[in-house]
Amino acid sequence: MKTILNKSLSGTILAGLPRHLYPVLILCLTMLVSCDLTVFDPGTVEDVDLDQERAIIPLIAGIEGDFAVATTGSTLPGGIFMAGAIITDELVHCGTWTGMQEWNEGTIRDGTAETQTRWSQGSRARWVAEDAVRRISQIVDNPNNNPYVAQAAMWAGFGNRLMGDNFCDAVINGGPLEHYSVFHERAEQYFTQAIEIASAANEDFYLTASYAGRAQTRMMLGNWQGAVEDARRVPTNFEHIQRHSDNSPRENNGLYVTNQQDNQTTVWGTPFAEWGSDTANRLTTEGDPRVRFQSHASRLGGDNRRPRWIVEKYTSRSDNIAIAKGTEMRLIEAEGALLANQLDAAIGFINDVRRFRGVEEASATTIPGGWELLQKERGLELWLEGRRLPDMRRWKENPGSVPFAVVREAAFGPASRDQPKNVLETDWLCLPVSRNERLSNPNIDN
């Protein structure tokens, strides 16, 4: 079972597993609904049936699957990562979906279906992970050094961090509206728990992933000393991913499906169209290989108006997505250095990342220039990995500006008249709590 756990499953229970391990996991599932567990309906599993050791691996798989659904979506138009990409400057909406148009134009409503789904899927991922920590801790003999508990706590940390990064307010299990930092505070607690347990269990991968997640979280809490200390523990070549598969829609990489198979998004109108690499060789760009897209002379989006330039970062429904990696840790160190007015140190960390990626080193001679370089570098390194929206929320407060522009609402006439605006020139840099939550929760005044 240890081998299966270390594969860092996601998607449905079989997602990301080597095929030779399928029979093992299928056997586990079969045991969950067999007669000796007195399950009345063999097509369902009662809650009590999950409170036993042989249910642990399916529980872990479910945690990771729900997280992946929340981030990239099991159906169009993608998940929370897609919303963040369009709210910021990573992508522009070029279609007819109402919710995506609201994200792009900064007129987000809590009752629009696309926005409501982001809240419900993210809330489910957070709750399922937290409940698994409780449940598995009661199943195993010693939860304080058990790798399954460590992994569940790690995912509970990422689930809370995801919600805090992207939503305007927090609601915990039917409670009142609270500041969104409550999610980050819970994330820090779960990552700390995962670190302690993974260390006791000698599970180096989960230990490192939890340090990376806690660094991301402490950064958003403004605890830069703690964030930098955690980041230093993560090597540059480390990467923690959410796995995707071609097995079923639930397991698909929804960013690929939305950006390549639908016609609602475009790289046109973003600064990334200037920074990246146009694989069609039509445009003169800076050519950074981390941002790959294909421009087209005549292809239009679903609005039959804006050019549809296609994302090529993810090239299949089974492409995995990084959610914490060592290169971001170097950029956390760089941002911490800038906050301390240590320009040379900041540029050094940025160039550590650029050398690792095989791109030319960069330079800046002033603190404002260093901030612009950092903001651009995080964009390039973390493009379409769900990190841009929390970045913008943080930078709006400190240093207080971002020098990039993106196309938002449509003008009258052809798309060429759509004027870019500064990326911070919007009323929304977060997603609202859904209307369904507000109407069904007695602790929220409407």
Strand content: 5-15%
Shape: globular
Number of helices: 17
Helix content: 40-55%
What's the count of strands?
A: 11
Tell me the structural class.
Answer: mainly alpha
Termini distance? 48 Å
Question: What is the H-and-E element order?
Answer: HHHHEHHHEEHHHEHEHEEEEHHHHEEH
Radius of gyration: 22 Å
Query: Largest sheet, if any?
Result: 3 strands, mixed
**Poorly predicted runs:** 1-43
Overall pLDDT, averaged? 89
**Taking strands numbered 1, 2, ... along the chain, how are they ordered across the largest sheet?**
6-7-8
Could you please describe the fold and organization of this structure?
It is a single chain. By secondary structure, this protein is mainly α. The chain has 17 helices and eleven strands. Strands 6-7-8 form a three-stranded mixed sheet. Strands 1-5 form a two-stranded antiparallel ribbon. A two-stranded antiparallel ribbon has the order 2-3. Helix 8 runs antiparallel to helix 9, helix 9 packs antiparallel against helix 10 and helix 13 runs antiparallel to helix 14. The N terminus is likely disordered.
